[in-house]
Amino acid sequence: MGIGDKPKFDIYIILIYLALLLIGWLTIYSAAQVSQYHGILDMDQLYGKQILWIGLAFLIISFILAMDVKFFERFGSIIYIISLLSLLGLFVFGKELNGAKSWYSLGSMTLQPSEFAKAATALAVAKFLSGINISLKNTKDLLLVGLIIALPALFIIPQPDPGSALVYGAFFFALHREGLSLWYLSLVLVAIGLFLGTLVLGTWWIALIILIAMTVIYLLSQKRRHKKRLPKPRIILFLIISGVCVLYSLSTNYIFNNLLEDRHRNRIDIVLGRVEDNQGVGYNINQSVIAVGSGGFAGKGLLEGTQTQGGFVPEQETDFIFSAIGEEWGFIGASLVIILFMSLCYRLIIMAERQKNQFARIYGYSVAGIFFIHFFVNIGMVLGLLPTVGIPLPFMSYGGSGLWGFTILLFIFVKLDGHRMSYEH
Amino acid sequence: MKRLLFFFLVTIVGLTLIGRVFYLQIIKGDSYKLKSELNAVKSIYDIPERGFIYDRDGDLMVANQVAYDIMMIPKELKKFDTLQLCTLLQMDKTRLKSKIQDAKDWSWQKGSVIVPQLTQEEFAPLQEKLRKFPGFYAQKRSLRKYMVDHSASVLGYIREVSPEKIKKDPRYQSGDLSGKAGIELQYEQELRGKKGVKHFIRDHYGRPKESYENGRYDTIPNSGLDLTVTLDNDLQAYAELLMKNKRGGIVAIEPQTGEILTLVTAPYYDPALLMGRDRSKNSVLIFNDTIKKPGVNRALQAEYAPGSPFKVINALVGLQEGVITTTEKLRCNHGYDYGGRKPLGCHSHQSPLALNTGIAESCNAYFAQVYRRIIEKGSTPEEGMDNWNRHVTSFGLGDYLGYDLPVGRAGLIPDGKYYSSRYKYKWYAPTTISNAIGQGEVITTPIQLANMTAAIANRGYFYRPHIIKAIDGEPIDNPDYTVKNYTTVDARHFEPVVEGMTAVYKTGTAKYAQIPGIEICGKTGTVENFVKIDGKRTQLTDHSVFIAFAPKDNPQIAIAVFVENGYWGSRYAAKIASLLIEKHIKGEITRKDLEKYLLTHSLEYEYEKQYSGEPFEINPKVDKGLIAPQPNALNP
């Protein structure tokens, strides 16, 4: 940082942040089931506590913005290692809440280190990839960066909190921006598609579809070869790919029935419509969809949502907060929140692209990816499009750790971006 | 391209989510609005009182008392002192935890029962303290109060509805009580009445705020209907008393109506045992006892070979088919040699003999010949057998009778096909000769025997036996129970057989069980029976059987008594039948010696034999069951 250099923090991203925070808090306030009202600072109520968490978040923001901008790149690895240790420490010192050992207990407060690990991992990935002579074309480097991403995920899965681990898939966007082939994503998508397809249609239909698809692709590639004079595609390759796909499809039922746990099976079954159980495991989703659907165009109004006020949607202050927005704010409010999140993602990419410094760009892409996955998976789940995966909606879901984790993640980038003119590698 | 991928994905996902919201809120919005309204409406149910059960004379048998269920709503649960609650509810910790988990699994919103059916006394100490546990509350319920300590098995019992039933029938909710057996189950719809419901909109504290749609959908409860059953309370109590320390079943029917006067199974239990706090403990004792089987209603469900009473039917069929006359005398040579390995034995009596003496002396040889003639009348044994089957089943044997109690057995009356598929080689009447004396393949339940006796008493027809007399004071007019079922035997053939049954009392096998002033017609039976012990077919002491009706003209009661391992029909069953007939007709017992014999004799020593692991003697010439006089308690 040159002397006298005034940082310029991006005002749009800060406005989006504040808007989401405000809507989130109002919704937590509305979703609370209060028998006696003692003002908004009532620390016995979630909305009261959330005000405290928001206040502390602002304090964290001031710290981040006041710090030396080089700190994050310099200490990226150390922060990452501390974060990994804090995840490992859970196995020994962790406190169990709702069946998962994901929290540290600090007096009456609890901290969830996995919420902070996202930012730490983003810093480590950015630092590693921006290093000299590091290339994703190099298999060793690719494996190393894969390891950096996979380690925290591997520590989080057995807590058990597979939802939070899923978020680490977000780093694909950063890697892709830095040159990782799209084929890797396609491979994952095809695998998921085949898995779900087999569950719904059965192996034989899937085999037929694979056969038709492969034939079409083969014929198309034959045509293209003539035009572009590419080497003749070998039919054997197509046969092998088809075979692998069919074998995978055949093993789907085994994976589904033996490797997944009951609750995961149930959640997938419900979204695929294979079972209907609105009183049991499907209760959450059913009530959440009713809440959103009953909101109509304009919503029932703040504090007027019968689903929300009646407490019909479990976990509504946390993972299912979007259902309260849908009910009380209607289509207008729900679309507004979705558009705010879309804007957040767009803005982050625009900001990332304007970075001259590779570290800041990779970090920016990682941040955008993480917010995108959270936004997509959380709202998709609340709307009954995706299986129940317990991850929060950034800035809106109740909880100190989540709010601070996302705030740190975002504002480190705001800080980096603010100094982009002066900040050199 | 690389930069665009992310923009592209965000746009696709964002539009998909907005599209989904649009679909849910704008396109399907109305249907979800309705669902959410139904959700937010709190329904408060008004559970009506269950109908009372009266006996035929208007004696109250079953009434109601107030009881409390401890309920819990998972959503309202706060942290609580588990230990304190466990002590309060007298429950261990794991059980409480599993109950709470079950409740959460079932519904987050709706109350689930944690401890069911506390009586007023059990609930009183809890009442104040329960307030300290948010989410827990007490729901007032009406519980059965038994005014009698007998008839448990026919009255049945009520208990919480199963989750399966709740799923199938929306009228039931967790904690509701419904009939599980006997009359309570059979007449559940009448007894339970209809719940009333009031709908309220909840305010945002979850409390009922205002009536929903001005009470448009509210209903008032209809209380359950009172039932009058055909049982005679006094007779029922007396029959159970006589069956103390014995196993078996008694059914008494009023022949002119088909009303069931008495229906007793032994061993029996106090109906109050299946109520209140200890009911699950008791129900294990009752329903999981595979040796005494007090949970089985032997009067309806026990299938025994009928033994000699069945000879009466063969006599009737013989007369109808014209293969015998009332005067033709047949020889008995201490039995009947039908060509088998060993002749069908018989005891000492005069020979040759005709129908009347044949019945009175219960002559095996006489009936073997009658049966043989019936079967051999057909051009083939199959045809003869089918014809015999047609006559016998017309007495209601070999099939469920269609009475209004939820359990029963069909018994078995074989036909030609039965034997043709059973025997590889050709078979003839002698092959099945044991059917002549009610042993062979024929099996019946006590209620079938009682009904058969009623058909004889009526000289050729019966009304389907039933337990319901009036619903809500209105006598039943169900055609199932008011239409005569005719047997295939003509009325004129009954008189000689009835005379034979009178002779059973006057000169025959039951002459010690006569009642002064009442002309009884009956038939004893001593039924051989076998069990498998360690895979070996072992004979046990014979069952004591008796059927009777009285008076001979214009009969008021037809009865079948079955006492397991009681040996001669006259030793136990005839005495019991005789006492019950006297009590029903005269209203008092004049032969205290008979009564004393039954109250001071137990058959428990017979029942223990097969479990002793040692060789044992069967059919003791002298009854060894003498015990000290028992207090008149009816508990098992």
TrEMBL record, chain A:
Record bears the keyword GTP-binding: no
Localisation per UniProt entry: Membrane
GO cellular component, one term: plasma membrane
Stretches assigned to coiled coil: none
GO BP annotations listed: cell division; regulation of cell shape
Transmembrane segments: 12-31, 51-71, 78-96, 116-135, 142-161, 181-214, 235-256, 329-350, 362-383, 395-414
GO molecular function: lipid-linked peptidoglycan transporter activity
InterPro entries: FtsW/RodA (IPR001182)
Annotated membrane topology: Multi-pass membrane protein
Pfam families to which the protein is assigned, alphabetical: FTSW_RODA_SPOVE (PF01098)
Transmembrane helix found in the keyword field: yes
Domain of life of the native organism: Bacteria
Keywords of the record: Cell shape, Membrane, Transmembrane, Transmembrane helix
Descriptive protein name: Rod shape-determining protein RodA
UniProtKB/TrEMBL annotation, chain B:
The keyword Transmembrane helix appears for this protein: yes
Localization: Cell membrane; Membrane
InterPro entries tied to this protein: Beta-lactam/transpept, Beta-lactam/transpept-like, PBP_dimer, PBP_dimer_sf, PCN-bd_Tpept, Penicillin-binding_protein_2
One GO MF term: penicillin binding
Keyword tags: Carboxypeptidase, Cell inner membrane, Cell membrane, Cell shape, Cell wall biogenesis/degradation, Hydrolase, Membrane, Peptidoglycan synthesis, Protease, Transmembrane, Transmembrane helix
Principal subcellular localisation of the protein: membrane
Gene Ontology biological process terms, A to Z: cell wall organization; peptidoglycan biosynthetic process; proteolysis; regulation of cell shape
Keyword Hydrolase on entry: yes
SUPFAM superfamilies hit by this protein: beta-lactamase/transpeptidase-like, Penicillin binding protein dimerisation domain
Protein name: Penicillin-binding protein
Upper taxonomic lineage: Bacteria, Pseudomonadati, Bacteroidota, Flavobacteriia, Flavobacteriales
